[in-house]
Design goal:
With 215 residues, the chain is an alpha+beta fold. It has six helices and six strands. The strands form two sheets. The chain has a four-stranded antiparallel sheet with strand order 1-2-3-4, covered by helices on one side. The protein has a two-stranded antiparallel sheet with strand order 5-6. About 6% of the residues have low confidence.
Length: 215
């Protein structure tokens, strides 16, 4: 799987928005708010689809998206707030994924390790671990940059990102440190304000190195 990622560099994007793999194979993406939301949103015309390598390569080399953050509670989070079992379970899962990356290194953290990390990030988001999820997402983005030969990849940056991820997860797992800082804060969704409206023209989905996304 990891050795096949380089094949994506020879694929082209057609005017219709589909990806041309070869003369007989096409990949069709259906995006929801700029991201692939379900497995059915990526269709391949190859004979063995959907269990084909083309789809696996496509989702492995594609930029990591970010779903809209949940609306935070009106009740402020204070340092005395106790962590729930769901918080610690999500932190444990993210800790294990981050530890796997640390042990394997960049060269050993292939598509499987990246997928496990993203799954843990998703669980952390659902549990409300905003800072930990962001840290995990930055690590996943840096690993992808390293695998695809992105010149923006910096080993020192990845080192700092992995350290941040493990430090936050350690604090959540052990219940030590400022709870509010460890949990982080979710971004609020944009809403209409009276007669004012904000419309995006010619927008494009953007994922920053900090783990935040927008358009």
């Amino acid at each position: 799987m990891d050795k096949a990622l380089g094949k994506a560099s020879s694929w082209t994007v057609a005017e219709s928005g589909t990806v041309v793999v070869d003369e007989d194979t096409r990949l069709t993406f259906t995006l929801t708010d700029g991201v692939i939301a379900t497995a059915a949103d990526l269709v391949c015309s190859w004979l063995l689809a959907p269990h084909c390598l083309h789809r696996a390569i496509a989702v492995s080399v594609a930029p990591v998206g970010s779903a809209a953050a949940a609306e935070p509670s009106d009740e402020p989070v204070t340092p005395s707030t106790k962590l729930k079992a769901a918080h610690q379970d999500a932190a444990n899962l993210l800790w294990q994924a981050g530890s796997t990356v640390l042990r394997a290194g960049v060269s050993g953290s292939g598509a499987v390790a990246g997928a496990e990390l993203l799954r843990a990030v998703h669980v952390a988001r659902l549990a409300g671990l905003h800072r930990a999820a962001t840290a995990g997402l930055t690590v996943a983005a840096s690993l992808l940059a390293a695998q695809t030969g992105d010149p923006a990849y910096r080993r020192a940056d990845l080192t700092a990102q992995v350290r941040e991820l493990l430090l936050v997860c350690h604090g959540l797992r052990t219940g030590t440190g400022d709870t509010a800082a460890l949990l982080g804060v979710a971004r609020r969704e944009f809403r209409p304000a009276g007669s004012l409206r904000l419309y995006g023209l010619c927008t494009e989905a953007v994922l920053t190195g900090s783990g935040y996304a927008g358009s």
